[in-house]
Every structure is written in C-alpha cells, then in structure tokens.
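Progress note, sequence design subtask.
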C-alpha cells in the first residue's frame, strides 16, 4: 500500500538530542508511519530532502497570538520559522475568561501592553465566549494553520474577580475574591488551558498607567493559584511568569520555588546582564536545586539581542516635537522626503541635539544594514556611537544620514535584552533553559523576535557553534514539547504526529523585518520572513512550501497534556 507522503533522502534530526542520521520519513493519516530506508516504497506525494535536514516542528513557548488568530489564521510570522505549535496566553494577557461587559477592557489592555489597537481586536474577534474553554472552541473554529496551546491569564481572571481595583498597588484579594479567582483558574484548566500565566514586569501597564492586574498579587494569591492549577489539571500544569527580577528578585524566586514544590511546571522569561558572568552561575545553582525530586522549573530566553527596532516605520526613537510631527506623516516615503528637505532636516537635527540626542543608547543601537539579509552585528563593531566616532560626527547626524541613504528602509536594533553575548550563550547552554522567546503577536509595530528558531539554527548553531545541531533542535522541539506536556509531539518517532520541517540548513537565514499594514483598520506591524524552510508540515499537511502558504490549515487546539 502506498503511503500518503514520503520525505526522502534527508538527514533526520529527530528532536531527542540523538545524532543526525540519513533516513526517509513516511506519513499516513497525519502521523509518522515509518522512518528508515524507504527506497522501494510508493507514495502519493514525495518531498525530496536530499541535502536537507528533516526535523520535528518547533514549539514556541512564548507567543501572544491570542487576538491575531482571528484575522490571521496563518499565524505569521511564527509559521515562517518552522513553528508548528504555539503557546498563547503568556504574561497574564488573555481574552478569557471574560464577561460581556469586560471585553473592551481586555482589548484595551492588550493594546497598551502589546501594541495591537483595541478596535482591531474588538472587530477582529467574534467574542462569542465567556469561559476559557469556549474561547478555545472559538480558536478551533477559526481553523488555525498551526497547533495552539492556551493558558488562562491573571489579568482577565483578576479583573473578572476584583474589578478595577485589581490593578491597584497594595490591594489584595479578600477571601471571597480569592475564592472566585481560584474557581476561574480551575474552570479554565478543566476547559483545556495548559495552565496559568502572570506578569510581574514593571513595563506592562494598562491604559491609565497602572500596572496590569496581578502584578502586585501577594504570595497568598499566587500560591492559591498554583495549587488550583495542580488540583484541576495534575502535576506539571503550567505556571508562566514574565518577571521583574530586578526590584523584587527574592519574592519572585520564592514564587518560582513555591510553584515547583506544589507541582507546577514553572516557566519564566530570563536572561543575563553584562557584569561578570551575567548571573549564569547563580541561575545554574537555582535550576539544579529546583529540578530535583519531581520539581520542574524552566527558563526561556532571547536568542539574539533585542528590545526595539527604530527607524521611520513606527518608532524613530527621537521624540522631540519636530520628530513627532515627522512620524505623523502617512508613509515612510513621505518621512524620507521631509528629511531631505533642507529646512526640515535642519530643524529635526538641531532639535534632537539640543534635547540630548541618543545619549548612552547610542552604544546599544545597531543598524541592521540594507543588504539582502540583515546584519545583526554580533561582533559588536557597528553600534551607532562607534559609527559616529569613526566618522567624527554626532550620532544624530549619522542616524539621519543613514535613514536618508536607505530611503527609510534601514532599521536599528536596540540591544536591551541579550546584548551580553557570551553570557547569554552560556545561559542558553544551561540544561533547563529553552532558547525560544518568539513573542509573535506582541509589540507588533515595535520589534519582532519571531525569527528566534531561524537565528538559533543559522547564526548561532551553524555559524558559531553555540550548540550542536542535534542539541539546538532538541531544545526547541523535544524539550519544549516536554515542558508543555505535549503528547506524541516534539520528536520524529513512528506513530507520533507528523509536525515536521524540511530545512536547507546551509542556506537557512532570517530576512529583514518588513513593516506592513495588514491588521484590521489598516493597523501596522513588523513581519520577518525566512529563507531555507523548504517545507513545514502540520498533521502531515504541507502548510508552507518555500516561504509560501499552501492554504492548508490543519492546526489543532491542544487540550490534553501529559500530567502527573
């Protein structure tokens, strides 16, 4: 009997961490049916993977595609980078559970935190749910291209239970409110949520400037939530945190440890600093101590320096009155034309310099160039301050000159996170760290890290040897799937789900981010594509071939997990 599909002639990197091997892969009924020498087998369809690697699909543990799925079921740009399963509902920002009267509030909260207009969210989603389980039903009805795993969020749940005071510093849930919070957490996990997420990050604010609900929740509340996750879903249920880890370092580490002791799989975003080893030794001890006797704590991190893109697309960095007027012009071409006008040019430059210019930020602002592919300057040779010093000019002049020369196309990458490269790479090598923080659907017009797996495999693994190929693939497929508790996903094994990538590894690279206006109400965002993914399959169906969508949308909302 002929197979539905055979991927022939490739080098299989199976996601387990095992060494690559030459093998063919057969697919039937959405599953991997055989792996081995299939030279005599027949198939209805064949993908020639000669000279290519064949991997499991990647599992992105940090996205914010909760709203975007409503109008972009292809889930771009994650799907451009080999991701086949995306975890949504991170950082406490979710749209369920949600009473009818609270819909606009949650949309405005997402706008404030993640840069998607509330009107786009209100009009782009059907809002036909109240519970978290009903929200997942809605997502499935939208026929997503990729698999989706959802977490319920602290912002939605705390606001539902406590109302407006849920954002107030120093205000804690009373017994009745805490009981309601626990009920909503249990109801959500029983309805299919993989767990619960919260934000303690001091940059996540609601429209009136207060911090998001949950930021100030005390240990009494977070412990009760962690227990509710385990009671409703079993040991290993997710407790995800976007931490502050600066002003409240001790209390947040205690929260991680409490969650692990109760039985949660604790997942948090982290990284390193520039001083000494950047905290790597301290984190190594922490992970080792909190991953014994059944406890589970995992960190995720950026794979490349990141934080914000500046230029003429949406953010110019310089915010003087003249620059604010410039950015109000309707298009990048209009802004370039204004920069070229001598009088306007003089006003913009003079005003910027009089207001301090770039200051110390010039040392962590790096141009991405205008060649075919971006230059991420990992040798740290081309920050704005160094370019200005070499030219004997003010950084403002260099910045403006390059914007004009590139016709406004060049973007400047702010190294706010992950800029201490050696420290970051050493952190990434720790056994309990997953180098995947794609953040797709977040900060959409400000920057994008959705190319994280592509950058990891290309720039860091192939070109710099930060990982071996088998270890890099394992971290973002098999290990990520294990963290989530996915069943029969994350590795290429006979009988497992056929979520697969065929990759031209030697030519794998990220493309330049592009600013597009494809959100409802002509909303703008940055999209980054890739080169080198010959095919990405979900449930045995090719969803992307050579960078183009096929129209297949076989994604599944996953609700059942491996739990203790």
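Output:
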């Amino acid at each position: 009997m002929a197979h539905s599909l055979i991927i022939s002639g490739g080098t299989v990197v199976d996601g387990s961490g095992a060494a690559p091997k030459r093998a063919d892969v057969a697919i039937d009924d959405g599953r991997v049916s055989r792996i081995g020498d299939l030279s005599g087998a027949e198939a209805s369809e064949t993908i020639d993977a000669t000279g290519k690697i064949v991997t499991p699909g990647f599992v992105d543990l940090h996205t914010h595609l909760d709203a975007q799925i409503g109008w972009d079921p292809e889930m771009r740009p994650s799907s451009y980078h080999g991701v086949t399963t995306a975890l949504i509902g991170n950082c406490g920002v979710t749209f369920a559970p949600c009473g009818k009267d609270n819909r606009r509030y949650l949309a405005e909260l997402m706008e404030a935190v993640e840069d998607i207009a509330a009107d786009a969210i209100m009009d782009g989603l059907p809002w036909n749910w109240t519970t978290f389980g009903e929200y997942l039903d809605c997502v499935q009805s939208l026929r997503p291209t990729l698999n989706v795993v959802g977490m319920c969020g602290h912002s939605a749940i705390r606001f539902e239970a406590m109302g407006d005071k849920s954002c107030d510093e120093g205000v804690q849930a009373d017994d009745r409110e805490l009981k309601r919070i626990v009920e909503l957490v249990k109801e959500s996990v029983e309805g299919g949520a993989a767990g619960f997420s919260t934000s303690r990050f001091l940059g996540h604010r609601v429209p009136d400037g207060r911090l998001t609900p949950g930021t100030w929740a005390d240990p009494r509340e977070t412990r009760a939530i962690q227990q509710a996750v385990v009671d409703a879903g079993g040991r290993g249920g997710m407790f995800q945190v976007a931490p502050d880890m600066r002003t409240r370092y001790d209390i947040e580490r205690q929260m991680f440890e409490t969650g692990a002791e109760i039985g949660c799989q604790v997942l948090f975003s982290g990284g390193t600093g520039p001083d000494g080893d950047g905290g790597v030794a301290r984190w190594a001890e922490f992970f080792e101590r909190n991953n014994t006797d059944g406890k589970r704590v995992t960190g995720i991190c950026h794979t490349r320096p990141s934080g914000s893109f500046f230029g003429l697309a949406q953010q110019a960095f310089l915010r003087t009155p003249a620059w604010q007027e410039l950015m109000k012009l309707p298009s990048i071409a209009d802004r370039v034309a204004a920069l070229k006008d001598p009088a306007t040019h003089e006003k913009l430059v003079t005003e910027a310099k009089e207001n301090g210019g770039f200051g110390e930020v010039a040392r962590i602002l790096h141009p991405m160039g205008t060649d075919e592919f971006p230059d991420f300057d990992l040798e740290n040779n081309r920050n704005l301050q160094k370019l200005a010093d070499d030219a004997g000019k003010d950084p403002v002049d260099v910045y403006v000159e390059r914007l004009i020369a590139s016709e406004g196309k060049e973007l400047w990458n702010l190294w706010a996170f992950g800029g201490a490269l050696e420290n970051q790479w050493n952190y990434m090598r720790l056994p309990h760290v997953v180098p995947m923080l794609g953040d797709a659907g977040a900060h959409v017009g400000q920057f994008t890290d959705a190319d994280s797996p592509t950058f990891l495999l290309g720039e860091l693994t192939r070109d710099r040897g930060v990982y071996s190929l088998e270890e890099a693939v394992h971290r973002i497929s098999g290990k990520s799937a294990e963290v989530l508790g996915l069943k029969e996903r994350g590795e290429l094994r006979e009988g497992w789900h056929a979520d697969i990538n065929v990759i031209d590894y030697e030519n794998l690279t990220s493309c330049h981010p592009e600013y597009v206006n494809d959100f409802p109400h002509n909303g703008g965002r940055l999209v980054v594509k890739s080169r080198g993914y010959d095919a990405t399959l979900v449930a045995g169906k090719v969803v992307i071939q050579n960078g183009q969508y096929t129209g297949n949308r076989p994604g599944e909302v996953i609700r059942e997990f491996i739990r203790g």
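The CA atoms of residues 81 and 454 lie 6 Å apart. Work on this subtask will continue into the next period as scheduled.
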